[in-house]
Amino acid sequence: MHHLRVYDPFARAAFNEVLRGFLQPSDAVKAGPEIRIDASESDKVYTVRAEIPGVNKDDIHVTIEGGEVTISAEVKRDHETREGERVLRSERYEGSATRTFTFATEIDEAASEARYENGVLALTLVKKAPAAGRKLTVQ
Q1: Predicted model pTM
Q2: Among the four residues 5, 71, 91, 135, which has the most C-beta atoms within 10 Å?
C-alpha cells in the first residue's frame, strides 16, 4: 500500500529556528544596559529623562550637535574575588550603551543642563532661537 506525504518546505526551517534559539544564551544574560528615555517639549526647552541604572555619573557622556543629542554610558564593575573563592555564575553586564535622537530645533548646548540622580539622567535642553532672516537690498 502506498502512502502520500505532504511536503512542507517550512517544516525543516522551523526546526532549525528552534535549535538556533536553544544554542544561544538567553536575552537576560547577553542583554546590556538599555537607555530608555521620555522626552517632552515646551516653547523654549526639550526635557529628557533617561533611565541609566547602575552607572557612575562620571561614566555618562552627553554630546550635542545641532539638534542631535547622544547619550553614552559605560558600565564598570569590580572583579574582586577573595582567596579561596571562585565565581560560579555572573550575570551582571559590563560594557557600554549609546542612544542618539534628533530634535526638530537646534539645541543651545551652553544653556542646557544635565543632572544624574538615582539612576535617572535629567536633561534640560534649551532651544536655540531661530535665526532672523536678512533682507537684501537689490541694486
Answers
A1: 0.66
A2: 71
C-beta of residue 20 within 8 angstroms of C-beta of residue 9:
no
Q: What is the pLDDT at residue 11?
A: 58
Question: Would strands 36-41 and 113-117 be described as parallel, antiparallel, or unpaired?
Answer: unpaired
CB atoms within 10 A of CB 64: 18
CATH top-level class of 33-79+89-126 = mainly beta
Is residue 136 left, alpha or beta, with left meaning phi > 0 and alpha meaning psi from -120 to 50?
beta
Residue ranges of the chain whose pLDDT lies below 50: 26-30
Whole-angstrom distance, CA of residue 110 vs CA of residue 45: 13
Distance CA 52, CA 73 (A): 8
Q: Can you name the residues that pair with 64 across neighbouring β-strands?
A: 69
- Given this model, what pLDDT does residue 28 score? 46
Q: How far apart are CA 124 and CA 45, in angstroms?
A: 7
Q: What is the pLDDT of residue 129?
A: 83
